[in-house]
Amino acid sequence: MTNLYYIWEGLTSLPILLAAMAGVLWGMCGGALPGISTAIAMSLVLPFTYGMDPSAALVLLGAIYIGSEYGGSIPAILIRTPASGSSAATVVDGYAMQRQGRGGEALGLSLVGGTIGGFVGLLLLSLLTQQLSKVALWFTPPAYFALGILGISVIASLSERNVIRGLIAGVLGLMVATIGTDPVSGVMRFTFGYPELMGGVPVIIVMMGVFAVTELMIQARERDYSEDVTERSTRLKLPSLKKLWSLRVPQIIAIVFGTIEGLTPGGGGSIAAFMSYNEAKRWSKEPEKFGKGSEEGVIAPETANNVVALTALIPTLSFGIPGTATAAILLAALLIHGLHPGPNLFTSHPEVVYQLFSGLFLANLGMFVFGLIILSPIIWLVNRPRAYLRAGIFGLIFSGIYSVNGSEFDLYLVMAIGVVGYLLRSLRFPFLPFVLAVVLGYMIEANYRRSLLITNGDHIVFLQNPISVCLLALSALFIVLPLYRQFRQRRRSSQAAHPQQP
Amino acid sequence: MATRIACTFAALASLAAVAAAGPALAADKIAYPVTTGTMIMQSSPGSGGDLFLRAVADAANRQIGANFAVENVTGGSGAKAMALLGKSPGDGSMLMGVSPTYVNTSLLSKPPVSYTDLQPIVRLFLDSVIVVVREDSPYKTLKDVIEAAKKAPHSVKVAVGEPGGLETQTMIELMQKTGTQLTVISHDGGGDALLSVLNGTGDMAIGEAAELKSQLDAKQIRPIAAYTEARIATFPDLPTAREQGIDMVVQKFRGIIGPKNVSPEVIKAWEAAVPKMLNDPAFKKWYEEGALIPAFQPHDQFEAFIDNFGAKQKQFFLDNNMIKG
């Protein structure tokens, strides 16, 4: 009962309301700007929270997390620039929709998807924290490895009839993922003496390079500057309830993967978004639409990353172990206020926890309302003549990348990745396998090697863990099935072509 | 907003108080060549190192006649912060808060400015590095672990944080000293290593007491040894590795460094300030909660300590093929 009182108190307290609104608004703006990642948006505000009441401080930071996960999808959809790793999966179909003049629709889908994801995540957080925190413990290195393999097994179907090229792009991505500190021995790999590469190539730089820089290069190559005169929707268009119901499968998938990634450390929004995108495609009735403006392809990653923003707080609060790098900042705020997250937090400081929940509820609501207000002007802004837009995007990308670490090196790196992306696209290699491999490569490699350490090099370890067995079996099925279908189709068509051959 | 306004008022009020008391206090403060100093930190706001340096700057502002502020210069595991410090004047206007990472980064990636190009000023603390097991683990002491490892090599799995870090090194040293074989599994950070112990992937973990506090309080994990010189104040019943017959101490230090040409006045000011800071009640409360062990070393001792530490690290990296001679 006291807990309900704390929730009520949180919902009606002015500082908490203000913290939630300020946080979500700043998060949306910061998240929409490339270079201001969620972590940066939060850490910029962190010093201001020192003097605040602990609940309001946590609400402010949590609201920024929520707002930022959504904000990232605005430039992803409108200008093909993922402002953060977790919005990169949205680029594929979101930008395709924008090019078809359906940008307003895509933004509506991502706003509603994000809000639903946020509320479901909050429900899981407030009701099932104790139970779900155990799920985090199920994931041992073999299970993480198998999860990564499941994610990467989709390469065959992402490659659109060109499995060999898809595999080549995937291998290139895995190569990029091996740059940096070796996950087991700590030896520097392929850093060529640059200390900037010790931590690997940041995922956000790969995303910006492959999506945004590549797109700028492709657009610059177009000869005529004729403006396309197709009627573009300049208004935000929310999906109807009927449409939402028809999109239930990708949303459920997104909630499942968002929850898993939120609960387990090291994953985070980008893995959740890509895994949901992949699975949404796999379970879709119209997988051929993916990549060409599929509504399912927008709503799945957008729901997933908002689920992560909330479920990542579960291990943060109940173990003191942040589920994502961003949740780590929230952890720091807890510590600054003398609160020790961990199994005892819920009994020692229930008022802080429950007021945090009510603040996050308000933040989710605020995100939806602010989205309705600010999106239409933003859509108008993006529909200005292309030449202005391109220069603006160029400035936005490079100032954003520079501001992450204040490092010139990162600028060269994003251009290099952009060139790789450009070559892939010009040579008609599918680039999604490349991105997917970069996102998942580290997780797969690190956990493969950790697993083998457990059994001193015996691969039996992957068969001893039930989660790993199930996921690996699923992956094997998903790899073999399309190949078998392709094989059958080819035999049939060759029979049809030469029916009378002896 | 109410809190914000209250906060602003509080800030203004304290400012006024400082302004009024300023002249009187300044006389008691330790003289410093410049009025404002930047203390740079290689990790991001909110990280362990950042919180440490902010607490230090806060305590220093009460003792030294200058105003210190923390700036986060992230990138390249500290290489960028070191490069910036190396270019700064030696008048004490720029200093850096460091942990063993800055030595390791210097050795592993050979950045343009390495630890030997910088001047250690003072050492403040050592971290309490402890070994923990799950509450229901059969191991009661480090000796039990050693015996189990002697019976069946590689049967005991140790979870450590980042690969190639001080924790891995400690475990390799332990194996060499006791002639045993342990399996060392590195993770992406201390938190992941702790989860590994909770879910049974690792049989034990090694880490800083502050990071493990909440699980220790909740009795999910149990400490079995401390890698410190003496017993840790907050764990009076926890025997050290030395007491258990294993002669090892982990020196995960935290200190302040400056550019190579840092002036003697700056060094003198810090040498005078740190012992006072360590007795400052607010600072004391902070570091005792974090189980940091005050381990003040003046400049010449700290310099020798860093030289020795660097040589030891280099040998370790060479022995394990992590760098080439």
What descriptors fit this protein?
heterodimer, A: 502 residues, mainly alpha, 1% strand, globular, B: 325 residues, alpha/beta, D-Maltodextrin-Binding Protein, domain 2, 2 domains, six-stranded mixed β-sheet, disordered N terminus, membrane (chain A)
SSE succession of chain B: HEHEHEHEEHEHEHEHEEHHEH
Number of domains of chain B: 2
* CATH architect. name of the largest domain in chain B: 3-Layer(aba) Sandwich
Helix percentage range of chain A: over 70%
Strand order of the largest sheet of chain B: 2-1-3-10-4-11
Name the CATH homologous superfamily of the largest domain in chain B: Bordetella uptake gene, domain 1
Give the structural class of chain B.
alpha/beta
Overall tally of domains of chain A: 1
As a whole number of angstroms, the C-alpha radius of gyration of chain A is 23 Å
Tell me the distance between the termini of chain A. Answer: 82 Å
C-alpha geometry of chain B:
globular
Number of strand segments of chain A: 2
Largest interface: A-B, 60 and 58 residues
Largest sheet of chain B: 6 strands, mixed
Mean pLDDT of chain A: 86
| Uncertain stretches of chain B | 1-24
> What sequence of helices (H) and strands (E) makes up the elements of chain A?
HHHHHHHHHHEEHHHHHHHHHHHHHH
Beta-strand portion of chain A reads: under 5%
Number of strands of chain B: 11
Describe this protein's structure.
The complex is a heterodimer of chains A (502) and B (325). The model of chain A has no long low-confidence stretch (mean pLDDT 86). Chain A has a two-stranded antiparallel sheet. Chain A has one domain (2-492). Helices cover 73% and strands 1% of the residues of chain A. Chain A has helices spanning 2-12, 14-32, 38-45, 54-71, 73-79, 88-99, 103-138, 141-152, 155-158, 163-177, 203-221, 241-246, 248-263, 269-282, 295-311, 313-318, 325-336, 345-348, 350-382, 386-405, 408-426, 432-454, 461-464, 466-497; strands at 180-181, 188-189. With 502 residues, chain A is mainly α. In chain A, helix 4 packs antiparallel against helix 15 and helix 7 (103-138) crosses helix 15. In chain A, strand 1 and strand 2 (188-189) form a beta hairpin. Chain B has 325 residues and is of the alpha/beta class. Chain B folds into two domains: 31-126 and 254-319, 3-Layer(aba) Sandwich (D-Maltodextrin-Binding Protein, domain 2), CATH 3.40.190.150; 129-226, Periplasmic binding protein-like II (D-Maltodextrin-Binding Protein, domain 2), CATH 3.40.190.10. Chain B is built from eleven helices and eleven strands. In chain B, strands 2-1-3-10-4-11 form a six-stranded mixed sheet. Chain B has a five-stranded mixed sheet with strand order 7-6-8-5-9, sandwiched between helices. Chain B starts with a helix and ends in a 6-residue tail after the last helix. The model of chain B is unreliable at 1-24 (pLDDT under 50). Chains A and B meet through helix 2, helix 7, helix 17 and helix 22 of A and helix 1, helix 4, strand 7, helix 7 and helix 8 of B.
